[in-house]
Amino acid sequence: MFGLMQDRPLLISSLLTHAERYHPASEIVSVPCEGPVVRTDWAGIARRARQMAQALQRMGVKPGDRVATLAWNTHRHLELYYAVAGIGAVLHTVNPRLYPEQIDYILNHGGAEVLLFDLPFLPLVDAQMDKLPTLRHAVVMTDAAHMPAGRDDLVCYETVLAAEDGALVWPSFDERQASGLCYTSGTTGNPKGVLYSHRSTVLHAFLCCAADGLHLSRADATLLAVPLFHVNAWGIPYASAMCGAKLVLPGLKLDGQSLYDLARAEGCTLSLGVPTVWIGLFKYLDEAGIDPATLPFERVLIGGSAAPRALLRRFHEAGVHAFQAWGMSETSPVATVATLLPHQQALGLDGKLDVLTRQGRAMFGVELKIVGEDGQELPQDGSASGELKVRGPWVTSGYYGGVGGQVLDADGWFATGDVARIDTEGFVTLTDRAKDVIKSGGEWISSIDLENAALGHPAVEAAAVIGVYHEKWQERPLMLVVRKRDTAPEPAEIRAVLEDKVAHWWLPDAIVFVDSLPLTATGKLDKKAMRAVWKDYLATA
User: Fold this and answer.
1) H or E element: which one contains 28?
2) Residue 234 has what pLDDT?
3) Burial 87-122 (b: 16+ CB within 10 A, else e)
């Protein structure tokens, strides 16, 4: 016997309709590429999203068509999140930080017929135009006053939007229909497309608004320092509409000073970003002599890669509750959140940091397990380490276009490529990416633990550990360190910081100072590039 409940589809357009009706005056603050701050609200975003949806339909966009973007965090990009998905098309956000060859591959593989882009990306788009056979319209996300002169081949966003009346009624369709397409960063071969559905996206938004999730609410003003092209900005554009939160969109300015000034001006209570963003923020505060206690945030979510303990400590000492979440493009992305349990609330700062340096516990709907090299499940006892597998209603079942073939095992588990431990309370601790793990004499060494320990030295700005060739042990750890300005620590000083935090045989065979560390397009340490340069260092040193 079935229950007698209505079956209404979970559609992304319903989030915007809700925000317009119940939170119309909640602010959206945008820093567009042209300059002056734009202030609107959820009612304004909803009206303009309907107008843009009509404009896209006039361009011939149909359900299932891909509409690509090369854009920063602005009100226009937010409008497209709803305009595209709302008419049943697929929003294909492209990371402009990728190599041109990767962008070319992604745009062609996605097969977008319309490309919308911010004005600073015009040279990039011009270089790609003759390589995109499916592209019919190129739209510059600007107004008529800033349009490039003499470019009849380009369409002005504000011009086509203003020509529509916004009287569109959002269509209803199957909630399993595709809504968004994001590509992985492609650090091991070509990027792979993850295709989200309306259902998965709305369910993920509930997680973001849950008290044990990201606890986003109407009371929040969120500085979105994670790009809208990075895994749907971790679901915040959708969750903010669900709960009516204020959104602050910083555009292309993600440097420490710009984020600090904007957060203070707008009274931001929450922000989200990768560790490199927050390291840059504290670098600015230190060099400018600004007390971190002046940060307005109540909470900061750190994701994308493991958060260093020293970074978490700096936030907490400034009165900001910094915490981690773990996920990936393939998990929409949030799968686990590091929320303190009731018995951990009374811990001192060091005790709380012991918990918050982990990647958190699975949210309802997400199942996790770790497996050994033989594929057998390992105990969740906090000591066994294996590859992390995941399944759930917002976890991918395959890559767009069938790339990579079957990615789920017989029981529906997706192999994440992360190596982790899970303790008896369900807290996940990442120890490495499987491709980055250091295997020395048959035993694993965690590069993440070594990096986080090194960042505890006050003169260390950044650190990376990679496995390099060793004649006897096959691999040994090499540590690369960026020193803070006007400091000159010796390798022995950094080694001394490590000695009481990790096993002796984990200690790096060499510590090398460098001016900078290469990053991927999503702001993570690019260890593939580092290994290519340093792989024979111990053999030739």
Assistant:
1) strand 27-30
2) 97
3) bbbbbbbbbbbbeeebbebbbebbbbbbbbbbbebb
- The reported pLDDT for the residue numbered 99 is 84
- Tally of CB atoms within 10 A around 475: 18
What pLDDT score was predicted for residue 109?
A: 97
| Three-state DSSP state, 317 | helix
Phi, psi torsion values for 238, nearest 5 degrees:
-80, -45
pLDDT at 185: 73
Annotated catalytic, 269?
A: no
Amino acid at 21: R
Residue 262 phi, psi (nearest 5): -70, -40
If residue 283 lies in a helix (H) or strand (E), which one and from where to where? helix 275-288
Q: What is the CA radius of gyration of the chain?
A: 23
79 is catalytic: no
At 508, list the tokens.
Answer: 């790096």
Is 234 marked active-site? no
Q: Where along the chain do its domains lie?
A: 7-28+41-197, 436-541
7-28+41-197 and 436-541 share one CATH topology? no
Looking at residue 188, its pLDDT comes to 56
Q: Choosing from 184, 276, 396, 416, which is the catalytic residue?
A: 184
Catalytic residue, candidates 17, 159, 283, 444: 444
Catalytic, out of 287, 425, 439, 505: 439
Question: Superfamily for 7-28+41-197?
Answer: ANL, N-terminal domain (3.40.50.12780)
248 residue type, one letter:
V
367: annotated active-site residue: no
Name, in order, each residue with C-beta under 8 angstroms of 508's C-beta and a sequence gap of 6 or more: 450, 465, 476, 477, 478, 479, 495, 498
What are the distances in angstroms from CA 289 to CA 316, 318, 319, 455? 18, 14, 18, 21
Element holding 192 (H helix, E strand) = none
Residue tagged 């770790």 (tokens): 370
Query: Which CATH superfamily, name and number, covers 436-541?
Result: ANL, C-terminal domain (3.30.300.30)
- Asked if 337 and 355 count as a contact pair (C-beta separation under 8 A), the reply is no
Q: Would you state the pLDDT for residue 433?
A: 83
**At CA 401, angle to CA 400 and CA 405, rounded to 5?**
90
**Residue entry with tokens 């380009």:** 154
* CA quadruple 268, 274, 278, 281: dihedral sign: negative
pLDDT means per 10 residues, the chain with 541 residues, are 96 98 98 94 98 98 98 98 98 92 94 97 94 96 96 97 98 98 78 97 98 96 97 97 98 96 98 93 96 98 90 97 96 97 97 97 97 95 96 98 95 96 97 83 84 93 94 91 94 94 91 95 89 90 68
Where does 298-352 show beta strands of DSSP type E? 299-302, 321-327, 334-337
Which of the residues 330, 387, 451, 475 is marked catalytic? 330
Query: DSSP secondary structure string, 76-108?
Result: HHHHHHHHHHHTT-EEEE--TTS-HHHHHHHHH
C-alpha to C-alpha distance for 470 and 442, rounded to whole angstroms: 13
What whole-number distance in Å separates Cα of residue 423 and Cα of residue 166? 52
Cα–Cα distance, 184 to 482 (Å, whole number): 27
